[in-house]
Design goal:
It is a single chain. The protein is an alpha/beta fold. The chain has one domain: Rossmann fold (3-Layer(aba) Sandwich). The protein contains seven helices and ten strands. The chain has helices at residues 9-26, 41-52, 80-87, 109-122, 159-166, 186-191, 205-213; strands at 2-6, 31-34, 62-65, 67-69, 99-100, 128-131, 153-156, 180-183, 194-199, 231-236. Strand 2 (31-34), helix 2 and strand 3 form a beta-alpha-beta unit. Helix 1 (9-26) crosses helix 2 (41-52). The longest helix has 18 residues, at 9-26. The protein binds 2-amino-2-deoxy-6-O-phosphono-alpha-D-glucopyranose. 2-amino-2-deoxy-6-O-phosphono-alpha-D-glucopyranose binds next to helix 5.
Length: 247
């Protein structure tokens, strides 16, 4: 695991954007794993800008998102499908048929889980996976206590995640937050050829410290990235503040 600390999230984001731009330039038909949340929004803006300037094209790029809430319509203001359209897909030259987000409304969830994994495999596997981290160490929606080997699956959200994400729902109402999500598993994430994890701010300090310096444990699912052969962690100074060793 390579860890880089930047003065601000702007610089860390710029470094992540460089990695994505280089990946698309090197392999125009690459497969990207994408993430939602507030953390990657500025990165998506940089990718949109690079596309507008003609530095990259998404015409042959395929994307797979990490996760989706169960039960939300794709057009719900908080669905991750809608988030991706608003933050990236609608502003670049990507073919929406190449944009995959787990279907949280699938009638047969088990079938959806298998099809999602099969689609990733059929695309040739993920070249570059973007990750954020939850305040409790979750990646995608793999919550503390999750199985560290599994593929795409249904996950019950923890109370902390429901509370953390309620701010984005109408009136910040926790009752509006779905209780379950479909998420790539930790196993799926570990199969990506390269991972880039972004974490910014005080609320991520404990999770970041556990991920980098703690033991590999279900209590902090992101810690399993220590086992991944090519993961780059990009932090702002605040998120890195609890790290004991300077990296
Ligand atoms: C969400 C997503 C994660 C994301 C995390 C952090 O619940 N499922 O993929 O990394 O929480 O979100 P934020 O970037 O808003 O802090």
């Amino acid at each position: 695991m390579k860890v880089c600390i930047f003065k601000s999230s702007v610089e860390a984001t710029h470094e992540a954007a460089k990695l994505f731009i280089e990946q698309i330039q090197r392999k125009p038909d690459c497969v990207l794993g994408l993430a939602t949340g507030s953390t990657p929004i500025k990165l998506y803006k940089e990718l949109i800008q690079a596309c507008k300037e003609g530095k990259i094209s998404f015409k042959r790029v395929k994307t797979f998102n990490l996760d989706e809430y169960v039960g939300l319509d794709r057009l719900h203001t908080q669905s991750y499908y809608r988030f991706m359209c608003e933050q990236l897909f609608d502003h670049v030259d990507i073919d929406k048929r190449n944009c995959h987000v787990p279907n949280g409304q699938a009638k047969d969830i088990e079938k959806e889980e298998q099809q999602y994994e099969a689609a990733i495999e059929a695309a040739g596997g993920i070249d570059l996976q973007l990750l954020g981290i939850g305040g409790n160490g979750h990646i995608g929606f793999n919550e503390p206590g999750c199985n560290l080997d599994c593929g795409t699956h249904l996950e019950a959200l923890t109370q902390q995640t429901i509370q953390d994400n309620a701010r984005l729902f109408f009136n910040g109402d926790e009752a509006q937050v779905p209780r379950q999500a479909l998420t790539m598993g930790v196993g799926t994430i570990l199969r990506a050829r390269q991972c880039v994890l972004l974490a910014f701010g005080k609320s991520k300090q404990a999770a970041v410290q556990g991920m980098i310096e703690g033991p590999i444990t279900k209590a902090n699912p992101a810690s399993v990235l220590q086992r991944h052969p090519d993961t780059i962690v990009l932090l702002d100074a605040l998120a890195a503040e609890k790290l004991k060793k300077s990296v």
